[in-house]
Design brief:
mainly alpha; flat; 171 residues
């Protein structure tokens, strides 16, 4: 998921750079850099995805290998969409005048398919459990406290940045 976030960030850089009114060379460089990140990370993500598939428990992996029409269809669709993403990104990278919209929409569709695949994996791992209420629950107070402290620190930081921005003189 972290790799996917980096790839989407590269695509967002390219999309936002296209909207900027800055120097044309700068815009082109930002679009190129964003697409380079998108392409490189998507290639790595495809390889990690296949490794992840092989690392799944045997019974869960078999769902994607024909054991479930839903999971197998998602795997096939996800694989095809990943290749489509690479093709579309490469086409825009080679011919920068092309629109980024097909790539952006294909990325959204791919993300939806990947979310459904992750849900199928979760369902596969939980399939053997009789009742989820039987799973013992233990509150992790240290993690909860750490989350609360980081959340509070983030809120304070954002408030400080907004205050600085609003008090800065206009350009």
């Amino acid at each position: 998921m972290a790799l996917g976030a980096v790839a989407v960030a590269g695509l967002m850089l390219a999309l936002l750079a296209r909207r900027e009114r800055a120097d044309a060379r700068l815009r082109e460089a930002l679009v190129r850099r964003g697409l380079d990140v998108f392409l490189a990370v998507t290639v790595v993500n495809v390889m990690v995805g296949f490794w992840y598939l092989l690392a799944l428990r045997e019974d869960v992996r078999s769902l994607f290998m024909g054991g479930s029409g839903h999971a197998t269809g998602l795997l096939g669709l996800g694989t095809v969409l990943s290749l489509v993403l690479l093709l579309l990104a490469w086409r825009v990278r080679v011919a920068p005048a092309r629109s980024l919209k097909p790539l952006a929409w294909s990325t959204l569709l791919t993300l939806a398919v990947m979310i459904l695949m992750r849900d199928a994996v979760r369902a596969g791992y939980l399939a053997g459990m009789a009742d989820l209420r039987e799973i013992p629950v233990k509150t992790q107070t240290l993690n909860l406290a750490l989350f609360a402290a980081l959340l509070l620190g983030g809120i304070v930081t954002v408030a400080w940045m907004v205050r600085k921005l609003l008090s800065s003189p206009p350009r």
